[in-house]
Structure formats: structure tokens, C-alpha cells
Amino acid sequence: MLMIILGVALAAVIFYYACVKPLNYWTERGVKQGKPWWIFGDFGPSFFRLQSFSEWAQSAYNETPGTRYFGTYQFVKPILLLKDPDLIKQIAVKDFDHFTDHRTFVPENIDPLWDRNLLTLKGQSWHDMRSILSPSFTSSKMKSMFVLIVECADNFVKNFLKKDEEIITVEMKDIFTRFTNDVIATTAFGVKVDSLAEPNNEFYLMGKDATDFSSFFKILKIFGYFMVPKLFYVSKANINNDLTNEDITAQALIFFSAGFDTVSSLMSFTAYELAVNQDIQHRLKKEVDATWKECGGKLTYESLLKMKYMDMVVSEAMRKWPNLPQTDRVCTKPYTIQPTTPEEKPIHLEKGAAVFIPIYPIHRCPKFYPDPDRFDPERFNDENKGNINPYTYMPFGVGPRNCIGSRFALLEVKIIFFFILKHFEIIPVEKTQIPFEICQKSILLTAANGFWLGLKRVKN
């Protein structure tokens, strides 16, 4: 009996020090925090799919109005949520040398491709790879990619023009994922596929699996080490460090994953907003028609970049629906956040400490964007966009570790909507959910029941 009592007491002590006491970390340092769950911290509702990650980020952001930061816990690990744009600038840009890395989501050495891609590389390895890949996204490279994306977009709309239906009901995420798949296939791998005409083509099906964390080994069966993606080809004469085929495949994988899911999500949200805001769609349609006429019936790279309203619409879609609810940084050497008010205390972050940058909540904050739930492209007109603090608008992340492929992503989105609106009107249909429900099962921001909309032919 005594042994049982001692065993229970020992288990209770271990549980307290392992699962309870760590959840007082921020309180002990004078930082306001919420009411974390034992073991799960603040991620309990998200872990059990009771709350989406974007909803969690929003509730954490709103917990303590007027503060520059808020203490959170991922399980028992303390993570500081940054709320103040100036503090975000300080950590992500000014003092970047203290916060050069992202958190690791997959244990190191589990998969060589995940270890070596740009998103997860750390320190000097990240810097070297970023320098090598940056030339792949210059204006000249984007111009050459433009031709290939236009070909994919033209082929995309032709698939629907062939249908003998006045209104074609489609799930936008599905068709946009197929489009981005085809774009990546041709621009990055030199492979031409038509994922609408051939919905079960091997590149699409295996590529879809490759975007899953559990499917990294499958990617090798698709692309193989022997395949060198065109987009990431770098002459050895121009770099000091030789890239192995594994290095190149790793970058192709993260490029594929980002394009396959995040870009198609942005397209889906944009289509939804155009469908429920017909006045905005009609104005954009006029700009499309005017540009088409000016180009003499052939869209050019320069003409697309001159489309101001197109840029305003896409910018607002990224403001309202950023794909990632938040990004993060890891402290790589000891750092102190100095107080700016009498209520604050110095916060000492040790090496390995992590901070959250809550993109979705900041984009939805009335302080920065009045009436934030309204879709209003005028926020980004010539008069207003200059007043936007860049650290309150972060659809592609912030600082040196922002998304390297942002220009490529924007090019894809603008081209596909140019071709869709040239031939179709995007409208709500019976299956359209207004407003839609945010999916609680996904880390990324997406609709729980899909983006069901209609493509209605227009007379040109």
C-alpha cells in the first residue's frame, strides 16, 4: 500500500513539473497569458479540431488589447505572440541576426529533402541557398515563365468552353489545384500535363501526395534524383557551392508544395470574393476587356503588370485571406525585448526560444484596416496603399525570410483571373455557402465545405 501511495505521489510530482509548472512561464516573467490546458497548452482546441488555427490566432491576438505581445504555449513550450508592428519590424528585420531561423516541424535527419529545403534550412545554410535561388525569380525569369503560365491558363479555360452548359458548377479549389499543378509541371519540371482533361494523371495524383508530410519518399518515385528542375537550374560556374541533386530536389519539393496548395487557396478565396461582390467583379472585367483590346488580342507581361485594379483585388484577397494564419522565428542567440511602457518588464529570450507573428489577426485588426471583414480593393489604390504599414500587411511573410516565390505566385493568380474573366462570370450557385465555414482540420486557411461556384459564359 505504501508503495502505491509513493508511486502515485511520484507520478503527481513528475506530472506537475513536466506538464503544469511550465505553463506558468510567462506569468513568472510578467507577461500576460491566457488559460492554457494541461499538456496541450493553448493548442488544445486546435489539436482536437474544435478551433481552426486562424481562429486560435485571432483569439490569442484579441486576448489583451493594447499590449505589444502575449504569452502562449504550444503544448508546454512557451512561444511569445508579437502584436505590435514596430516590435515585429525590430525582430524580423532590424535584429534579424538574432532570429534567422524558423521552427522545425519535422525531426532532423528523418527525411533529407525536408532537411534541405529553403523553408527549413537554418543559419548560413539558408543564406547560401537563398542567394543561389534568388536569380530564379528575377524579372527576366518571370517574363519567360509568363509565356508558359499563359499557355496553361488558355488551356484551362478551353476545357470549360468545350462544355455545353451555360453555367458550369465547379469546386474552385479542385480546379485551381489542377491548374497550379500544370503550371508547376511545365515551369519547374518541363512536363506538359492537362489535369482537367486527364484528372487522374500520375503527375497530379502523386504530386498531391507529395504535399503531405507523410509522402516525402513518394516524391522521389515521381521526380527522381536525376531530374533537375528548369526553374532552379543554376550554372556551377556562377556559384561557389555545388548543389547536389538532393539539394535541388528538396527546393523543387517545397516549390511544388507551396504552389500546389497555397496559391490555389488564394485563387479560391479571390474567386469567392468576386462571386459575392459582383460590382468589384464587373469593374475588374472592364479592365480585363480594355487590356485585351490594348494588347490586340494577345496578353503581354508588361500589360498584365499595368493592370492596377487587378493588383488591388489580389492584394485585398491576400489581406483578408492570408493562407498562413501566422509565421514564426526562432531566437538564435540571446536577446532582450526592452520595455517601452512602465507596465512592461525586460523579456529575456534564450537561444531556441520562439516567437509567433500573427498574420491573420493583424490583417483583420480594425486598428489597421477599418471594417476589416469587408472586401474592399480600394484599400490598395494609389492614394491609400502608401498609408499601409508594411508590418501590418504580410501575406508572403516578413523580413529576409519572406516567400522567395511571391512574384511567381502573383503572376499565376493574375493570369488565371484574366483568362477566366475574359470568358466567364463567376457567380454563386445553389451549393455556394455564404458566408463559408472555415475548416478546423487544416493548418492552412481554407473553406470547410469547399468553394462551390459557377462559371457563366459571357458574350465578348
Structural account:
The strands form 3 sheets. Strands 1-2-7-4 form a 4-stranded mixed β-sheet. It is globular. The protein is 45% helix and 9% strand. It has helices spanning 2-20, 25-28, 44-47, 53-62, 85-94, 112-116, 123-133, 139-161, 172-188, 202-210, 216-222, 245-276, 278-294, 301-305, 308-320, 359-363, 406-423, and strands at residues 69-74, 77-82, 167-171, 327-330, 335-337, 347-349, 354-357, 424-427, 452-457. Residues 213-240 have low confidence and may be disordered.
What is the SS-derived class? Answer: alpha+beta
Sheet with the most strands?
4 strands, mixed
CATH-level-2 architecture of the largest domain: Orthogonal Bundle
Please provide the count of β strands: 9
Question: Which percent range describes the beta-strand content?
Answer: 5-15%
Low-confidence stretches: 213-240
Query: What gyration radius follows from the Cα positions, in whole Å?
Result: 24 Å
* Head-to-tail CA distance between termini: 87 Å
In sequence order, what are the helices and strands, one letter per element? HHHHEEHHHHEHHHHHHHEEEEHHEE
With helices defined by DSSP (H or I, 4 residues minimum), what is the helix count? Answer: 17
Number of domains: 2
Order the strands across the largest sheet as they lie in space: 1-2-7-4
User: What portion of residues is helical?
Assistant: 40-55%
Reported by name, the CATH topology of the largest domain is: Cytochrome p450
CATH homology superfamily name of the largest domain: Cytochrome P450
Can you identify the CATH class of the largest domain?
Mainly Alpha
Shape: globular
